[in-house]
Design a protein that fits this description.
By secondary structure, this protein is mostly helical. It has three helices and two strands.
Length: 108
């Protein structure tokens, strides 16, 4: 039931995005059209999205990212493009109670 409802919503959003006025211009502003397209693209990519902006990270997240990049380089994968993949709706690491290197919970 949830998948069908989501398909209906996405179909309706696509219809709204494609509506035009009599003069041929879009009914909605480009900002709204791009927001709708971004939502549809995120859904088609499995609710993941690449972002290139600077997102605030904790020190432990920076260390984990660096270790991950070093492992990729050691395997011969040069995929460092400055982007970060974010899963929509996922709880941030600091909320899930990630452990610090000492084995204690990190402060929130």
């Amino acid at each position: 039931a949830g998948k069908q409802a989501l398909q209906q919503v996405c179909g309706r959003l696509l219809d709204l995005k494609q509506q035009t006025k009599k003069d041929g211009r879009g009914l909605y502003s480009k900002r709204i059209q791009f927001a709708i397209q971004d939502f549809l693209d995120t859904r088609s990519a499995g609710w993941t999205k690449k972002v290139f902006g600077g997102v605030a990270k904790t020190k432990s997240e920076i260390r984990m990212d660096q270790e991950r990049e070093l492992l990729k380089q050691a395997r011969g994968k040069d995929i460092i493009d400055g982007s970060q993949t974010i899963v929509s709706g996922q709880r941030p690491m600091y909320v899930t109670g990630a452990k610090s290197p000492c084995g204690t919970k990190s402060p929130a």
